[in-house]
Amino acid sequence: MNAGFDRIGLRRFAGIGDRLARAATIASVSLGRSLLWLLAALVVGCGVWMLMPSSKGNSAQGESGKSELAAVDPAPATSPSTNQAGTASAPSVAQTLEAAGLDRLRISSQTWRRGGLGSKALVTFTLRNDNDYAVKDLEIVCAFTRRDGSHLTDRSRVLPETVSMRSRKTFAHVAVGFINVNADQAKCSLVAARRA
How crowded is residue 184: how many other Cβ atoms within 10 Å of its Cβ? Predict the structure, then answer.
């Protein structure tokens, strides 16, 4: 029995299946190529990351292998600043700031996070100025360590900002530089500042 489908014009729909199959094949080939390029980019990116030097290449250490931050750690409050050999050593940060009259500056709180795909350190800290004068050109040094506490790298930054007298100012997301991928902790300290 003929239901009269010839009259509806089903013959024109007969080629649609072939066209849809052809379009699906083209789309799958295009998607396959895109996934292949994405996989190649991931492999190359991982290869470059694996070839990056570890903590030795990224640390800011001198030729002797000792950290430059050791030179800015506060010395004990003994009489003249001499080392065990009896020679005079460089003045500590606390003595330098005190000599400049900036001993009432301190970092009251600090945090850090990664930025730039995990390769840059962004530090947020609050600087407190208890002096009777404003200060400017603040220099900070941040020491980065591994989870176990071993030293990785030091980064410093001079901020051309002014902090008013008897006030505090928060510096948000200050980029201090590139850091090692293994860095887990950061400790920043004020190294120098000038009267405004």
Answer: 12
